[in-house]
Fold this sequence. Notes:
Layout lengths: L4 E6 L8 H14 L33 E4 L14 E11 L5 E9 L5 H6 E8 L5 E9 L6 H5 L3 E2 L3 E11 L19 E8 L6
Antiparallel strand pairs: 1-9, 2-3, 3-8, 4-7, 4-9, 5-6, 5-8
Amino acid sequence: MDRPIMSTTLKNTSRKKTWTAVGVGALAVAVAGAGAYSTLTTSIADNRFSAAVPEETDEPVEGALLVLEGKEIDKTFDSDTLNDWAVGDWTLTNRGASATEFDGTFQLHNDIDQALAEALKVQYAVVDDAGDVVRWRDAGTVAATGSLSEVLGIDSIAGESTIPVVVRVLLEDPQVLVGADETGAPLHVLADFTVSYLDPIERS
């Protein structure tokens, strides 16, 4: 059986989406209103789930549990200068005892300004043993980001270990945004940086 792909996400939550709540509210009114369709159901009954309480231990547990930690990027770029940038300085930790394979990239939300997403360049840092950035490698744009494994060649993490994930987002030339909207209009992009990884335990 194929091993399942897990994921851990660092989310940018600076913009709240209200349209989802409005849509659900409208649906509730439609269902409850006069002359509405009846709500019918079908189900698989009596699903049972159980687990034994484990012995408390300070030792790492078999398997992999990746956690991406750090502060989300929240940046308003200067549209009057070239090469304004922001950096996400994050840490990927494997809390499990087993090594696993992983990859990571930006995933866009639906409600974005595409012109800005295409204008924002993404770069991944090559980091030395001291944690210092040695060089930056281009990874496309926020609209179409190359993955960590593709750009840096890093695709595995040992058990009980950490890997720095340093990402720079660059508005190289704001003039490419001219015509995206009227002058001075704000453009917004919301994206999650998501790391997906394999469960190293083969399960039936």
